Amino acid sequence: MSFRDIKDAFLSILSTLEFIDIIDVAILAYIIYILLKLIRETRAGQLVKGIVILIAGYFVSGFLQLKTISYILKQVLDNGLIAMIILFQPELRRALEKAGRTKFGVRMFGIGQSSDELTEMWEGAIEAICDSCVELSATLTGALIVVEREVRLGEQIETGTILNATPSKEMFGNIFYPKTPLHDGAVIMRDGMILAAACFLPKPQKDEQINKRLGSRHRAAIGMSENSDAIVIVVSEETGQISVAMNGVLTRDYSRERLKNLLETEIYQQNSDISIPGKKLFSSHSERRKKD
To answer: How far is CA 196 from the centre of its chain?
Structure first.
């Protein structure tokens, strides 16, 4: 095809272009941008690179008339949609959950609660969490507290013991006291109440990439935050340091005031994109702290 043919084809497309076509292309471009942003720095990003290589290989083999390779690559690409759904299942699940947690999703389906309802449910609970973490930190008592938000954690709750108790410094102290049956596991909170204790949390998706010196509590916190929008608070039994995991990222060095500010911001404004205060320690790629 000559340059003149390409030019004529381009002008022909422009001559038939309508305003609705521009909107169509703009929406498609935005969707592609969101998908690229979603898969960046995840396992899906590496899979996309592999798919791009396969597509490039298909066109190159066709150009060079490598019939056998072209046939094999064509069969692979023809069944690629099903393969992508299987390979990207965790990423697709998180993307749909994230879409449901947006303001549009909340308003469209009537989910979520008003700010007054959230304040009423969580005001005392946040104070109890902060007081408890400070006291547990001072006594080097390990703790793992999961604050449930839009994504329900029924699977994890079923692994623990249902309490449905009002949170308090004394309650958390009794649960995480090392010689009690419920201390080994996570406390899951829902609607400002301690719903369950001794719950098992999922492992991080990139567990092998996390420094082996990292303790089980912090690894579980990262795994839970990768699989949901929960806020996961960890108290180290080695150093007493208070850490928070959100969206697969662990931050630490929290004081009572900073922890309270974070909880109030994230719980009362669940549908806003709020950055996590505190120093970023690692995502699922690195860890430099002493094992807990």
So the answer is: 22
